[in-house]
Amino acid sequence: MKPLSLLIEILIILGVTIKTIRAEKHNKRQKERNVTTQVSANEIKQYLPHTLEQRTSSNVINKRENLLEKKKNQRKIRIKGIQNKDILRNKNHLQKQAEKNFTDEGDQLFKMGIKVLQQSKSQKQKEEAYLLFAKAADMGNKAMEKMADALLFGNFGMQNIAAAIQLYESLAKEGSCKAQNALGFLSSYGIGMEYDQAKALIYYTFGSAGGSIMSQMILGYRYLSGINVLQNCEVALSYYKKVADHIADTFEKSEGVPVEKVRLTERPENLSSNSEILDWDIYQYYKFLAERGDVQIQVSLGQLHLIGRKGLDQDYHKALHYFLKAAKAGSANAMAFIGKMYLEGNAATPQNNATAFKYFSMAASKGNAIGLHGLGLLYFYGKGVPVNYAEALKYFQKAAEKGWPDAQFQLGFMYYSGSGIWKDYKLAFKYFYLASQSGQPLAIYYLAKMYATGTGVVRSCRTAVELYKGVCELGHWAEKFLTAYFAYKDGDIDSSLVQYALLAEMGYEVAQSNSAFILESKKANILEKEKMYPMALLLWNRAAIQGNAFARVKIGDYHYYGYGTKKDYQTAATHYSIAADKYHNAQAMFNLAYMYEHGLGIAKDIHLARRLYDMAAQTSPDAYIPVFFALMKLETMHLLRDILFFNFTMRWNWLKPDNTVGPYWDLFVIGLIVAGLILLLRNHRG
């Protein structure tokens, strides 16, 4: 048996040696490629299919080698037993380490490419960056996925959907769940691929099975809304729960960053000063006021920089700067936020429980809710002080009474989990509900959990799904709202549309209406013009189902004018009625009044038209002038009709015998007939 065992070991060593030689040859080729610094765009395009072909052929070779090695290893295990298992384990460890190093090198090349692209001032420098991206993609799936995402979404100004699809298809064959999700998204819109909802569903299903959280969220929304699947609340619940569990886990480790969702449907003059995004000039003015000593502005700027709100970058040093200024002026909020920074630890404030306790105590002594909550956290988790649930409960109650949602959530959690007190699901529900009204994400998550399992409340699948959906929409992918908005403002419509469309596919109502708004403008180039109105109508419909009144009016407009569908006044009137009755939308009232005035799709009713015009003016001041002119027109036309009707009536009345010869006109006529007959008889006799 020894010679056979030795032969097998030699074969294994030989296989490892061959792989090492190949790796060295690959490194040599990489060095030779790095000598080239300037490459034309055509060469980059040629490099991509070559990379894919090379990866495909290498995968085939690797599969064959793995199959041979698997057989050899099985024989080896049978021969040498436990001792050889250790050798195999070490070999697998080395192989995984080599793959990790290879992938890390690809990530470094990708980051280098981004740096070169951001600093590039000429086309040649951009081409250097693209070559680095292509090389990175050749070195591992992770870098290749980043490359494909950059090409799809137009990150760093390098949008190329056809190239992105090539990469995604190659990755999907290797089992990449991210690639399968991306291909599902592209198929669902027909962007660069054939529009095929059935194929999209297959891609999403495989992506979800492979661990794609985005695919799971998309499937949750599809089963909730019945998009190309039978509507099924329980299936939607299972998908949304998976995603929400992941999001809640990240929130428990660190505070989530709220997402600014700008609506493009707002008026253009209001878009630049949208409350969701802080205008640069206003930011400079706030900075000026902060430096002048405005404590409230100092605290506000500190909060914005602490978590990166309203389009500002997260900057702990700036946050600490403003909080310290405000704290010196006696601001309890600023003291509490400094305590929070030291409790969590960051680049500006290393984690320090003692310092956190100091600042929380200073704030709490002034009755500050955030400070009281901070002290409660320290006692609850035993950070810098012994664990003391009674003290934690006391501080949480004081902070909750002052309306601080995080403290309300902590109270709910203590009653839910029975931490230091008896479990009480009724009280847990009460505090979770109070905190959820302020948007506390973990409170919403636990409410969803209670409704999903019927814990402390009557089980409700629909309510649980809606709550879980709200938690899921706080995921990191929501950051695309900002990048999509800035791309739109910069005139990069295609990049903006792709990002909004992906978010729309995940069930974000704002993204659905924004995508529809961009599509109906027909400024995008990634879809054929004839497909834009039908796709926009589909998205307006999805947004309307989620409660968007403006979208409901839009659907009415599309049916009224025949955009993306046949003209249908009756359907248009139905949608206007829903928007007017359910959402009290002034535009819908105005449109419906016009249809009643002219009898379009509904029975003509001038009185109801007048009433709806008046209601539109009362509902919105913006509708006053259009309503004034509409009523003037209506009354003028009505007056003209009355005048014409009056003239016709007067003529008819003049012809009426009652008005000319009195009420006994019949006797008068009979008399005339008798007189005529007498005259005829006389003439006959004569």
From TrEMBL:
Pfam family, one: Sel1
InterPro entries xref list: Sel1-like (IPR006597), Sel1_AlgK (IPR050767), TPR-like_helical_dom_sf (IPR011990)
KW Nucleus (keyword) present: no
Residues passing through the membrane, by range: 664-681
Record's protein name: SEL1L2 adaptor subunit of SYVN1 ubiquitin ligase
Family according to the record: Belongs to the sel-1 family.
This protein's GO CC annotations: cilium; endoplasmic reticulum membrane; nuclear speck
Organism, scientific name: Cercocebus atys
Signal sequence coordinates: 1-23
Keywords, ordered alphabetically: Membrane, Signal, Transmembrane, Transmembrane helix
GO biological process, one term: ERAD pathway
